[in-house]
Amino acid sequence: MSRSSSIVRLLTSCLLLAVAIPLGAATFTSSQNGNWSASSTWGGAGVPGAGDTANVGHTVTLDVPDDPIPNERVPAVARIPSVLLAALVPLVAAVAVVITLSVTSEPGSGVGAPTRPNAITIKNFAFLPARVEVKAGAAITVTNADGVVHTVTADRGGFDTGRIDASGRATITVDAPGKYAYHCEVHNYMTGVIEAT
Length: 197
Ligand SMILES: [Cu+2]
Hints:
Blueprint (H helix, E strand, L loop, with lengths): L2 H21 L3 E3 L4 E2 L17 E3 L4 E2 L14 H29 L14 E4 L4 E2 L2 E4 L4 E6 L8 E2 L14 E5 L4 E6 L7 E6 L1
Parallel strand pairs: 1-3, 2-4, 5-8, 7-12
Antiparallel strand pairs: 5-6, 8-10, 9-11, 11-12
The structure holds copper (II) ion.
């Protein structure tokens, strides 16, 4: 073997050693059932620690603390990912919140779009919202926030709350799909629409 070839091999070995030491990464393969901390479990090759790779082909009982390697043996290089992770987690969470908000605010957010909640509030002699869209058979809660009696009465039949006292509440159900215009029996200028689908 030539002299230069030996030097190259030596330099390569040093390079590999330099890469392996800071990462502290070694590979252990189980040779028999046993405790994690028993060297015999790993064929007498030592015990895998943090950052090491363990190929477990046997029943190995984890009998070591979460961080079996003392802090001074963990190279600074190995701690950097934790710092990056700590910075990334809030960032990812913030992005997730923004995405969730933009997705949930899309349906029905346009002007004049039908509202989804199965609820009607009567306030200042008006039905709010004046148009609601519900699934047929779903209950719709009517709340009278005024100081006087109102009703929610379908123009051509289908539902009628009867008199809802001041600050009172009633429930109506539209069984068949369709568009139901309704009014207040006491104040017939108060009108609204329920669309059941
Ligand atoms: Cu009324």
